[in-house]
């Protein structure tokens, strides 16, 4: 098991900037599972961070090494969930969560690398592997502990068998038409109005029917930027808003009402991701503006409670925040049970590449629908991946290469590994010269 601290200097151009995170350097605590198989098949995964602390995330992944070494490929292919169960089940490491925070994200990185390894070994993109799988096998991959008051294994099995009906036709439609996307690329908070308007017009020209703006730092700025965005895209394009957890509950209600004249489609992360009752109160107060959340929700149990409390209209999974594919399967099943659409978070290095597989599985073999469902797209850092996302007319094209689309180019690892990659060494030298 090899790990890498990979960081990209996105803060230099304010890419990714929002009201809570004004200067992110998009980063990946990256893990590679290597084998001694004749075909040299490997598994790749990562946890997404925004710069400082990525070394802490790498250290957490390293702490899991002993649970990974020595397993056989046959064991992994038969039951990827065995790794998830062992990693979550260590009683001493569990104390650091349980099932949340840096350690849980480390587990997610390793578990996702396992699934990349399994899908690569079977010669299928992950979405296809999951869609083809027997429902009983998929149910065995899910940890139902703490969920059975909302979703039982029997109910999950019924949902998956129902999802098999028409799956072949939906797979054909997916391959032909792709999966709907929206873009956040015009809306970073650090962008000026001219850049926002230009990128918003380009997004519409590229076929996107929804864009997203970051809000929450200054109300007058938000009013001006929303006005500029609406003028740029016209009345027929959805404009979603994202506060990135900036507000208290009452402040969120007041702010959203002030912005309602621009017809926002949803308000994302209006308050703390842990405040279930706060989300429910905001949702009641700001309807018909939808409430969306999930990118920072720490595990399936909090998602369960958000659904039970009627606290969200749009559920946003994140491929690298929870405990990997296995836990995201549980969350997708919960969303299907409650009839809530899933619109994944993908603003970050590699998150678009990963989460497209989960939404495509959901469409083909679980929910059976793309209605009111879109995957976030941001237009940066894809060139660092061996199988980058492909966007056509505002839609994700279905991946065709085997695996989870997580593998980065060796040259990118060599250039952007921190602190001794070639980019960062040169950057330090330039800064030292500037101070002399």
Automatic annotation (TrEMBL):
Transmembrane segments: none annotated. It catalyses: L-fuconate = 2-dehydro-3-deoxy-L-fuconate + H2O. Keywords: Lyase, Magnesium, Metal-binding. It comes from the Bacteria. SUPFAM superfamilies: Enolase C-terminal domain-like (SSF51604), Enolase N-terminal domain-like (SSF54826). Residues 193-289 form the Mandelate racemase/muconate lactonizing enzyme C-terminal domain. It is an enzyme of class 4 (lyase). This is L-fuconate dehydratase. Pfam families: MR_MLE_C (PF13378), MR_MLE_N (PF02746). GO terms for molecular function: L-fuconate dehydratase activity; magnesium ion binding. Its EC number is 4.2.1.68. Residues 1-15 have a biased composition (Basic and acidic residues). PROSITE patterns: MR_MLE_2 (PS00909). The lineage of its organism: Bacteria, Bacillati, Actinomycetota, Actinomycetes, Kitasatosporales. Residues 1-21 are annotated as: Disordered. One of its GO terms (biological process) is amino acid catabolic process. Its cofactor is Mg(2+).
């Amino acid at each position: 098991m090899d790990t890498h601290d990979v960081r990209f200097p996105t803060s230099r151009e304010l890419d990714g900037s929002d009201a809570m995170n004004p200067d992110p350097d998009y980063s990946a605590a990256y893990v590679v599972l290597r084998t001694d198989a004749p075909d040299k098949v490997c598994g790749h995964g990562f946890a997404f961070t925004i710069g400082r602390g990525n070394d802490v995330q790498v250290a957490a992944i390293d702490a899991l090494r002993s649970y990974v070494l020595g397993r056989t490929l046959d064991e992994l292919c038969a039951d990827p969930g065995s790794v998830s169960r062992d990693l979550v089940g260590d009683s001493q490491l569990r104390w650091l969560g349980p099932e949340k925070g840096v350690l849980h994200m480390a587990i997610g990185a390793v578990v996702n690398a396992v699934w990349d390894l399994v899908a690569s070994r079977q010669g299928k993109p992950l979405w296809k592997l999951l869609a083809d799988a027997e429902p009983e096998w998929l149910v065995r991959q899910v940890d139902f502990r703490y969920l059975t008051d909302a979703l039982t294994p029997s109910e999950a099995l019924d949902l998956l068998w129902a999802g098999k009906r028409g799956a072949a036709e939906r797979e054909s439609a997916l391959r032909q038409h792709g999966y709907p996307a929206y873009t956040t690329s015009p809306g970073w908070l650090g962008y000026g109005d001219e850049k926002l308007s230009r990128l918003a017009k380009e997004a519409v020209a590229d076929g996107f029917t929804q864009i997203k703006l970051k809000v929450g730092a200054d109300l007058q700025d938000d009013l001006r930027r929303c006005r500029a965005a609406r003028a740029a895209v016209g009345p027929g394009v959805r404009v979603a808003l994202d506060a990135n957890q900036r507000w208290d509950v009452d402040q969120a209600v007041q702010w959203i009402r002030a912005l309602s004249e621009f017809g926002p489609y949803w308000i994302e992360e209006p308050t703390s991701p842990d405040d279930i009752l706060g989300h429910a109160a905001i949702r009641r107060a700001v309807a018909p503006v939808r409430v969306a959340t999930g990118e920072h929700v720490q595990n399936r149990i909090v998602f369960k409670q958000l659904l039970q409390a009627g606290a969200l209209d749009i559920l946003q999974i994140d491929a690298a925040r929870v405990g990997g594919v296995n836990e995201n399967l549980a969350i997708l099943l919960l969303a299907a049970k409650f009839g809530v659409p899933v619109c994944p978070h993908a603003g970050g290095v590699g998150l678009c590449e990963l989460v497209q597989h989960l939404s495509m599985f959901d469409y083909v073999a679980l929910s059976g629908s793309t209605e009111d469902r879109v995957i976030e797209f941001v237009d940066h850092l894809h060139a660092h991946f061996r199988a980058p996302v492909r966007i056509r007319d505002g839609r994700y094209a279905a991946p065709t290469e085997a695996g989870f689309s997580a593998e980065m180019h060796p040259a990118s690892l060599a250039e952007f590994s921190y602190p001794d990659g070639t980019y960062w060494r040169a950057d330090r030298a330039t800064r030292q010269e500037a101070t002399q």
